[in-house]
Design goal:
This protein is α/β, with parallel strands linked by helices. Helices cover about 40% and strands about 15% of the residues. It folds into three domains: about 70 residues; about 170 residues, Rossmann fold (3-Layer(aba) Sandwich), CATH 3.40.50; about 70 residues, Arc Repressor Mutant, subunit A (Orthogonal Bundle). A nine-stranded mixed β-sheet has the order 1-2-6-5-4-3-7-8-9, with helices on both faces. α1 packs across α5.
């Protein structure tokens, strides 16, 4: 580890001190960035740090200094790594939070890098909610976005599953340790996620799911993301906590409308009334998150000259004109698989080169 960074064991031990919290952990180690070990930390004038009271200092002195090292020793066996706030791999988006976690336990073959959208909702969705989650997540993945959610029953599970089915990036933010499967019915999905995505948590391995952990982890779900899409959420739903965290973080909130008489969409309708963007098509999300996407024909420069294209993308652009063409016709003429072609077309939409009209018809922008 870089000698200019706080030792991982110290960071983890601090995180386990009751009442300290991530902000005070960061404040301590930002005040004393040259700390070498636990004993070194306790020899400092801790009263210099805002928010560190006499009670907290007593708790620090009473803490087991080996806690962090004991946790670190478990991680290789679990194929888990610890990414702390000062590490180069710590997500920039998450670092922007005023209460960003001091560190994350990360398990799986995926990556923390990339652009992600949070997709959350009720634990008891309707068939409409499940279907729309699957459709939107698959199209978002095809456009180059990863999916972040909380691995709960219902919409969260549908979002992770859709991303994995489309070979996309997905991150599950857990309210327990990364080695704990919760809910148990998601055991198969959990192992699929570890093969292609990530499970992350601010809680050490072995931590059981606890009611107060889940509202806490919601700030991480939104913090890893460019924005949040809420699909079916009743009033008082935990998904709304994620939405309000997203607003507090000055990021975009999107909501899927439902039936006006559906209690499971009441929270979404409330968000829309308060200014969340109504989402019916994937373009409603992309146009807010990807600036070139919202450009109108006639306002764009010659992007074909300025954007790097693969040979296949260039072939598609040379085929398309200003007149919309049905995707089936494009696939037939270019001898391409439709699902592969849709992914390529969505990537070109993201670059501002292609526009889609009703009925899966595409044209040059």
């Amino acid at each position: 580890m870089d000698s200019t960074l706080p030792p991982e064991g110290v960071i983890i031990t601090l995180g386990e001190v009751p009442g300290l919290g991530s902000r005070k952990v960061r404040a301590l180690l930002n005040t004393f960035p040259d700390v070498t070990d636990w004993r070194d930390l306790l020899e400092r004038d801790l009263t210099r740090v805002e928010g560190i009271s006499g009670t907290l200092i007593e708790r620090l002195r009473a803490a087991d200094p080996d806690t962090g090292l004991q946790i670190l020793e478990q991680l290789p066996r679990l194929n888990t790594r610890y990414v702390h706030y000062w590490h180069e791999d710590y997500p920039v988006q998450l670092k922007a939070l005023y209460d960003a976690p001091a560190g994350l336990y990360v398990r799986g073959a995926g990556s923390l890098e990339g652009d992600f959208l949070a997709v959350v909702g009720t634990r008891q969705p309707t068939p409409y909610g499940r279907d729309q989650t699957r459709r939107l997540c698959q199209e978002l993945v095809a456009a180059g976005l990863g999916i972040v959610s909380g691995f709960a029953r219902g919409i969260d599970t549908a979002a992770h599953r859709a991303a994995l089915e489309t070979e996309g990036s997905t991150i599950a933010v857990l309210g327990c340790g990364v080695d704990v499967v919760y809910p148990m019915e998601n055991r198969k999905l959990y192992h699929e996620l570890l093969e292609k995505g990530l499970a992350v948590s601010e809680y050490p391995p072995g931590t059981s799911p606890d009611g107060h952990h889940f509202p806490q982890r919601n700030r991480i779900i939104s913090g890893l993301s460019l924005g949040a899409l809420v699909v079916e959420a009743g009033k008082g739903s935990g998904a709304l906590i994620t939405a309000y965290h997203t607003l507090d973080q000055d990021r975009e909130v999107f909501a899927l409308p439902g039936r006006v008489d559906s209690a499971k969409s009441a929270g979404c309708h409330e968000l829309i009334q308060k200014g969340a963007k109504l989402v019916g098509r994937v373009e409603d999300v992309l146009s807010e998150l990807i600036p070139p996407y919202s450009a109108r024909p006639g306002q764009q420069i010659d992007l074909l000259r300025e954007v790097d294209l693969t040979d296949t993308e260039r072939e598609i652009m040379e085929y398309l004109t200003g007149e919309p063409v049905l995707v089936d016709r494009i696939a037939e003429d270019l001898q391409r698989d439709i699902s592969e072609l849709l992914g390529l077309l969505l990537h070109l939409e993201m670059k501002g080169l292609v526009v889609q009209s009703a009925g899966k018809r595409f044209a040059q922008a």
